[in-house]
């Protein structure tokens, strides 16, 4: 595929990628992808991966589901053994290929890498403040005693 500079593009249901399904709130929607095999600037085999998906995540602040876009774009250097890592281009990530390359796994790996570690919905701070009726950051600052208050009293006496 590399020598022929093959390209693949299309859509893939989120539901068929088991590790991604475990990481999202709802396994709905499609992934649009584009894969381009070729050579990097050093002449080594490479794979350009672009993938985009609209997924539903669970906000860890409000515990409500929200939609967000995952967008991955990377260049992978296809290497046969670990000794080839040093010879790869600095602008690409190594991908050890020891057998047939499953393109679905490559797409899934790249989307998992751009998945937020702690998903937080935009605007969730305002929702929490509205639910509790307070601004926790300002209230916490007012509630904490100033550690220098005792020093200021000593200084003024």
Round the Cα radius of gyration to an integer and report it.
24 Å
Trace the largest sheet across and list its strands.
Answer: 1-2-3-4-5
Number of helices: 5
Low-confidence stretches: none
Number of domains: 2
Structural class: alpha+beta
- Gross geometry: elongated
Order of helices and strands: EHEEEEHHHH
Give the integer mean of the pLDDT values: 85
Number of strands: 5
How does this model look, in words?
The protein has 157 residues and is an alpha+beta fold. The chain folds into 2 domains: 7-121, no CATH class; 123-157, no CATH class. It has helices spanning 18-23, 103-114, 124-132, 136-143, 149-156; strands at 7-13, 30-39, 45-58, 65-79, 93-96. The radius of gyration is 24 Å and the shape is elongated. It starts with 6 loop residues before the first strand and ends with a helix. The model has no long low-confidence stretch (mean pLDDT 85).
Topology:
Blueprint: E1 7-13, H1 18-23, E2 30-39, E3 45-58, E4 65-79, E5 93-96, H2 103-114, H3 124-132, H4 136-143, H5 149-156
Parallel strand pairs: 4-5
Antiparallel strand pairs: 1-2, 2-3, 3-4
